[in-house]
Amino acid sequence: MKKIILPKLPNKDGHFDEYGGMFVSETLMYPLKELLEAYNKIAKSAKFRQLLTKELTMYVGRPTPIYYASRISKELGSSHIYLKREDLNHTGAHKINNAMGQVLLAKAMKKTRIIAETGAGQHGVATATACAKYNIKCVVYMGEEDIERQKINVYRMKLLGAEVIPVSSGSKTLKDALNEALRDWVSNVDDTHYIIGSVAGPHPYPMIVRDFQSIIGHESKKQMASIYKKKADILVACVGGGSNAIGLFHPFLNDDVEIIGVEAGGYGLSTGKHAAPLNKGKPGVLHGNRTYIMEDENGQIQSTHSISAGLDYPGVGPEHSWLKDNKRVKYVSVTDKEALKAFYYLTEREGIIPALETAHALAYAFKIAKKYKNKNILINLSGRGDKDIDTIARMTQMTL
Amino acid sequence: MNRIEKTFINNKKKVFIAYIVCGDPDIHTTVKIMNTLVDSGVDLIELGVPFTDPIADGPTIQKSIERSLKKNTSLNDVFDVCNKFRAKNKTTPLVLMGYLNPIENLGYKKFSKIAVQSGVDGVLVVDSPPEESSVLSTVLKEYKICNIYLASPTTSKSRLETIINTSNGYLYYVSLKGITGSKISDIKSIEQNINMIKKIKKNDLPVVVGFGIKDKKTAKEISKISDGVIIGSSFVKIIEENLHNKQRMVDNINKYAVKIKTSIVNK
């Protein structure tokens, strides 16, 4: 493969070529610029970096290991499957990497209140956790439908002292929770910091969240070399908003490695009931940035479907749209059914229960492991599946 | 001179602007409401273009948009309403207010072309600040459609200059840090900010105030310190309360508009 050198983006206006930007109402321009300034000044200082590294090590449990999944590797063929164990982070997913960084930033900015949106609840739990630790008020917006399917995480957030506000507008899922969080922020810009959980939203969020999540890729690169004396040939991660994917991919973008993002295919791309904007959507403007979105012929945002609440989103981080158009990353999709199958497969064969979001990445990786010969496939095991037990049990008509 | 400029210059009173969502309760009634508004003394109409994710709007307007979208109101329907309104009314300025994505979906050029043909005088895209609007504003200018921007209590002085220089028609000053339907608490600070805007501006761009104006008293106070008053959620609320009786809906809109109109001061 020829050497690729991609430009360093976003540019100063927050654009990844035609994607990204700050498509927000006037009132939010000020806090976004304030945040950008604070981020550039505070988060890049050595003092902040040291503190964050210390917390990620002693509190979150980083670095997370890379586990060689020998049993399934052997069973699937000649390729080798490596799992970056983000599920072993405190709170059970990669979301805490961003939450810790942003809560520390909010503290430094003297904000006294944190708000967040959440889909699967992992970002909500991570934010509530960091807020409990740093003694800062936390409000989490969550769609009513997601509250229903991720009850365990709702209870966890409440235990952690967060206020969980159900969102009943629109499709009652992640996109509507994001709308409501933005409305809260407009009304409380002075004392409140909004922690977006993904690489979506207006600039500077896609950049900030990416930077805090890039620790996944940086660690992976070092670990593959030092522990296994190998280089990954293929990287695979699931993409909803795309934070775990960009976290793994970003440090590798200029390396000789194939990169694959897996979207939620729901009932199948041809049914229209999915959450795969990069595969089936087109560029538009949603939640403060230009990116691939799922819209109808009138430019209205379509409702999405995925078995996993965390992928059930009609947009995607703008950097992914850019990486799709410049062809650096290949974006594919996996159906609910295939994801479920991968969920069971990993659980039964390796003793690791993955999140349903992560199961999408696993399903595609298993597919190519059968096809390719002697490849080192590194999958971001972005979260653990405890939160999904309820959904799985219900689907198999089991009562817990 | 376009209809918006004429209205601000020729009006005896400060300008009274009403906002309603197109297609709530239905397209036919929207036209009727628009005519009623004009008959009751409204000088300019902001017609809301429904969008699934209205991040700057409070619950009242959100629900109105949801009702409109349930009837699949599209941009074409909005233009249809404008045409029907324009067929009888050649003078009242018409501004489309909404979010960027439906406009992007149709295409800036096509949107502007049909908008002009339908008698639209201005466009306000809530989620497209000047930083992101260079292409759209060029196209709007080409079609002689006024490009209206928001300014808010959080807008910095340097950005205010940019906004004023890229605006035409009028400047929409958002009275509060919040969403539509919130309540104004501090008229003094609004006055201070408007005075600051008036000092910055190099042209005669009128400054009107919206968000949080519900009653006669506030409308009067605001009309004293600005060039006009925008009322949205209160009209939308009347629509919501009378969904099953359209005659009463129109009558109550008339009564409310007349009441507000009398409280607005002369220039």
CATH superfamily of chain B: Aldolase class I
- Give the overall average pLDDT of chain B: 96
Q: How many helices of chain B does DSSP assign? A: 12
What gross morphology of chain B would you assign?
globular
CATH class of chain B: Alpha Beta
Instruction: Fill in the CATH topology of chain B.
Output: TIM Barrel
Please provide the ordered H/E string of secondary-structure elements of chain A. EEHHEHEHEHEHHEHEHHEHEHEEHEHHEH
Strand content of chain B: 5-15%
Strand fraction of chain A equals: 15-25%
Strand order of the largest sheet of chain B: 5-4-3-2-1-9-8-7-6
Label the CATH architecture of chain B.
Alpha-Beta Barrel
Terminal-residue CA separation of chain A: 50 Å
Q: Helix content range of the residues of chain A, please? A: 40-55%
Describe the main β-sheet of chain A briefly: 6 strands, mixed
Strand order of the largest sheet of chain A: 3-4-14-9-10-13
Plain-language structure description:
The complex is a heterodimer of chains A (400) and B (267). With 400 residues, chain A is of the alpha/beta class. Helices cover 44% and strands 19% of the residues of chain A. Chain A is built from 16 helices and 14 strands. Chain A has helices at 26-43, 46-60, 70-76, 95-108, 122-133, 144-149, 151-159, 174-187, 205-213, 215-228, 243-249, 277-280, 318-325, 336-350, 356-371, 389-395; strands at residues 15-16, 19-23, 66-68, 80-85, 113-118, 137-143, 163-167, 192-195, 234-238, 258-266, 282-286, 288-293, 330-335, 376-381. In chain A, the strands form 3 sheets. Chain A has a 6-stranded mixed β-sheet, with helices on both faces. Chain A has a 4-stranded antiparallel β-sheet with strand order 1-2-12-11. In chain A, helix 2 (46-60) packs across helix 4. The relative contact order of chain A is 0.16. The mean pLDDT of chain A is 96. Chain B is α/β, with parallel strands linked by helices and 267 residues long. Chain B has one domain (3-263): Aldolase class I (TIM Barrel), CATH 3.20.20.70. Chain B has a 9-stranded parallel β-sheet with strand order 5-4-3-2-1-9-8-7-6. In chain B, strand 1, helix 2 and strand 2 form a beta-alpha-beta unit. In chain B, helix 3 (59-70) packs across helix 11. The radius of gyration of chain B is 17 Å and the shape is globular. The interface between A and B is large, with 37 and 45 residues.
